[in-house]
Amino acid sequence: MASYYLWFAAAVVLVIAEMATGTFYLLMIAAGVAAGGMAALLGFIVPAQTVTAALVAMAGIVALRRTRYGKLRRGGASTDPDVNLDIGQEVEVPAWDPYRRARVPYRGADWTVELAPATAEALPGRFRIVEIRGTTLIVSPR
After folding, report:
1. CA angle at residue 20 from 6 to 33, to 5 degrees?
2. What does DSSP say about strands 109-115 and 136-141: parallel, antiparallel, or unpaired?
3. 42 Cα distance to chain centroid
4. How far is CA 67 from each of CA 22, 27, 29, 37, 70, rounded to the nearest angstrom?
5. d(CA 93, CA 101)
6. DSSP E strand boundaries for 72-135
7. What CATH number does domain 90-141 carry, 1.20.120.80, 3.40.50.1100, 2.40.37.10, 2.40.50.140?
8. 84 contacts 77 by C-beta, under 8 angstroms
9. What digits encode the pLDDT tens for the residues 52-73?
């Protein structure tokens, strides 16, 4: 049995595994393994096939890291509207205390509301939730 069958079979297995994980790193490794299969098909010796596979996989991973798909996103869940559906919702604040806080009903419970740090003193009214810290809603004017 020719060795290129093994390379291409391994590439197919890696592509299937990639579909299960949702990252693109296994796809880059699968491309490297497929390049090793192409080297085998062209008649290269096994060490050259392996080096080809490794170089193509490493180049693919480096290229992936330079795109937005390879970047690690480090953001807090407290300000991410994709994680916390309350971000962007509005609340009605009837009055503020001297500490820039208030108690408001929201979703059937009383919540502590605090003005965002960069916000100047505000009058009572409607405010948009920009962050959630524990049981405190951080709000800014609409």
Report:
1. 25
2. parallel
3. 40
4. 16, 14, 16, 26, 6
5. 10
6. 90-93, 101-106, 109-115, 125-133
7. 2.40.50.140
8. yes
9. 999 999 999 999 888 876 666 6
Where are the domains positioned within the chain?
3-65, 90-141
What is the length of the chain?
142
Q: Which residue in the block uniquely carries the two structure tokens 């330079």?
A: 66
Centre a 10 Å sphere on the Cβ of residue 114 and count the other Cβ atoms it contains.
18
pLDDT reported for residue 1? 52
Helices (H), the chain: 3-21, 25-41, 46-65
Closest CA to 130 of 92, 75, 87: 87
Contacts of 10 by beta carbon, 8 Å cutoff, 6+ apart: 33
* Structure confidence by residue, pLDDT tens digits, 82-102: 777 888 899 999 999 988 899
